[in-house]
Specification:
single chain; 12 helices
Length: about 300
């Protein structure tokens, strides 16, 4: 079955190549554009432009003098026209149907379109009387998309393209796992609210006290409740996420260990770590790593 599929893919590739060559023979502009986009020096030049553009974006800082800001902006405009010409040459040489057959080309087109809006805002702010402050927030959104240009390297870097495609395919195929993870977080958030809610309060000396104590000078108007708590559903969900992310969850555990006691808090947090971190998330990682198969990369190449 796999061998037959490879034969069909190879046959389709040959037929599409013959169709493009026949299309190029009938028009001088098509032929020149087709040979240009198929040439390796052209693709290498685009890759160098992507890398240089990435370095230019990394030069952005605050505060920044006027000269440096102008250099960065005009360099960005230069690379915008380079990528715009790349898209035009590919559309001319390959045709719209063949160009949009690859998702990487659609991604490149989207970046160019978004960069066009960025260029329009630059022109409005530099050469007209329009107050740039009024559109600065919108312009900032389109400037953020400049950083996506580094992903254009996937067109000339097969392994990077394979990794990006595998990541997207994996995300699409683990929807059921996302539902399972959401249910797991919901269950432990509710369980934490039942066992640990309204039991965490600290004095000025960071000592645990009775949450509902009255008449105690240490529990007057000066007390603190840590941000990671189980007093409400939102805070409980975030606390469970912190434990699963393995980001400072020991502080949360230690606070409840001192206030609730070692038995209940230990059972809750140890079971959450074992089931959530060590089993559930490692299962997800194994699903991800299964997709990154060198043999599969060689076959697709």
């Amino acid at each position: 079955m796999t061998f037959a599929l490879r034969i069909l893919q190879k046959t389709d590739q040959i037929m599409r190549k013959e169709k493009l060559e026949k299309r190029a023979d009938g028009n001088l502009l098509y032929r020149c554009s087709y040979k240009l986009v198929r040439a390796k020096p052209f693709n290498h030049l685009i890759s160098v432009c992507i890398l240089v553009n990435t370095v230019t974006l990394a030069m952005d800082c605050h505060p920044m003098d006027v000269l440096q800001e102008q250099i960065i902006e005009y360099t960005n405009i230069l690379f915008y026209f380079v990528f715009l010409l790349e898209m035009i040459f590919k559309l001319t040489g390959l045709g719209f149907g063949e160009y949009t057959r690859l998702r990487s080309n659609i991604f490149d087109m989207a970046i160019v379109i978004l960069s066009t809006f960025d260029f329009i805002f630059f022109v409005l702010s530099a050469f007209t009387e329009v107050n740039f402050e009024k559109v600065s927030s919108i312009a900032l959104v389109f400037r953020i998309f400049r950083t996506l240009r580094i992903l254009k390297l996937a067109n000339t870097w097969p392994r990077l393209s394979f990794f990006l495609k595998t990541m997207l395919d994996t995300i699409n195929s683990v929807g059921s796992f996302g539902i399972l993870l959401s249910i797991f977080i919901f269950m432990y958030a509710i369980l934490g609210m039942e066992l640990l809610s309204y039991s965490l309060k600290m004095t000025r000396l960071d000592k645990p006290v009775d949450y509902f104590a009255t008449g105690n000078p240490e529990v007057s108007d000066v007390y603190s409740v840590p941000d990671s708590n189980f007093d409400g559903f939102v805070n409980a969900t975030l606390s469970v996420f912190i434990v699963l992310a393995n980001d400072g969850w020991t502080d949360v555990f230690f606070d409840y260990y001192r206030t609730v006691g070692g038995g209940m808090s230990s059972i809750f947090f140890i079971s959450l770590v074992v089931l959530g971190q060590m089993i559930l998330l490692n299962l997800f990682l194994s699903m991800m790593l299964e997709k990154f198969d060198d043999d599969k990369f060689e076959r697709e190449s």
